[in-house]
Write a structure and sequence with these properties.
Layout (H helix, E strand, L loop, with lengths): L2 H7 L12 H12 L4 H8 L3 H6 L15 H29 L1 E12 L5 E12 L3 H11 L1 H4 L13 H23 L1
Antiparallel strand pairs: 1-2
Helix pairs in contact: 2-3, 2-5, 5-6
Length: 184
């Protein structure tokens, strides 16, 4: 067999090129609704993150009125779910700012002298104190003029600044001379 014949018989190896499809478009939409990021969506599609990013703007379904590519599906899903999640995050953050109470349930198993087993449920009320960092963050963002922690130093430069520096330098020299005299 000659070399040309062997080249024709060789088969292209490796994974076939990824081609996005309508079911993948719907899967991206559902994963984005759940709050998945790009790498989690790529894992859900069983493709590499780089492949997913390359195909973000690839038009898959021109006839779909809602979204035509992965990026459109992600934007639409996040726009629908973000207000609800934002409210949940705000509520959870505010609970950390003011502190909260919760019930902790303990199930205990007791064995008596005869070998009988009894179960007892104990509910303990616990308190989570306010988080200082969350309080600071909340206060600084609600009233920055009052709670801002940045100290600003204002330096006024006058025309006589050089003269003031000379006086300070002379005073330091005199202090050094006086301290040398005291040590002798």
């Amino acid at each position: 067999m000659n070399k040309k014949a062997t080249k024709k018989l060789s088969v292209k190896r490796g994974r076939p090129k990824y081609v996005p499809s309508k079911p993948h478009l719907n899967a991206v939409y559902k994963l984005a609704q759940k709050g998945c990021n790009y790498s989690e969506i790529a894992k859900g599609l069983k493709i590499a993150l780089d492949t997913f990013r390359i195909n973000l703007n690839t038009v898959i379904d021109k006839n779909n009125e809602d979204f035509t590519c992965f990026l459109d599906a992600i934007k639409k899903a996040r726009a629908e779910t973000d207000p609800e999640r934002l409210e949940q995050a705000e509520n959870a953050f505010f609970k950390r700012v003011i502190g909260f109470d919760y019930d902790e349930v303990h199930n205990e198993e007791h064995t008596d002298a005869e070998g009988g087993v009894s179960y007892k449920t104990k509910t303990i009320r616990k308190k989570v104190l306010a988080d200082v960092t969350a309080c600071i963050f909340y206060l600084v963002n609600r009233n920055p003029n009052k709670w801002k922690s940045i100290n600003q130093t204002i330096l006024q430069v006058s025309e006589n600044t050089d003269e003031h520096y000379r006086k300070i330098a002379d005073a330091l020299v005199q202090l050094d001379n006086n301290s040398e005299k005291v040590q002798e």
